[in-house]
Amino acid sequence: MRSHPLRQIIESCDRAISAKDFDSLKKHYSEDAALVVKPGMIVKGKDNIRKVFIVISDYFQDQLIVEQGDMQVIEGGGNALVIMETVLRFPDGHSRIVETTRRTTYVFRQDSDSRWLCTIDNSYGTSLLDADTA
Q: HSE (CB half, 13 Å, CA atoms) of 124?
């Protein structure tokens, strides 16, 4: 079975994050996109999202590695809901690498050129509802 085109886009974005290529990354976001930075903090606009990814990279000492796991895509009305596993690897501050898996949610919209652009990037997924995450 052929993978959904959004898998390739998300893989490209994750490679850009890992490589600190934030100009390439921002091309995959709509002008009005929203990014959940952390529970309770949302940034809007692709230029602001680019800036936040620089801060996130700095926070993880430029060593954040992002990869994909299982993915489900639900399309309707020119939009797509992506529910997927995202694997994060980063230094723990004690010379070790931590690996964690999140169940991420994204919303993409097709533009007039049929390109998929991310409108909502929520790496916390439904865990935003958990009291200890909020």
A: 16
Confidence band of 95 (pLDDT split at 50, 70, 90): confident
Checking 98-106 for CB contacts under 8 A at 24+ apart, the result is 101/69, 102/127, 103/127, 105/81, 106/6, 106/10, 106/81, 106/82
d(CA 63, CA 40): 25
| Neighbour tally for 34: CB within 10 Å | 19
User: Model's pTM, two decimal places?
Assistant: 0.87
Distance CA 60, CA 69 (A): 21
The mean pLDDT of the chain is 90
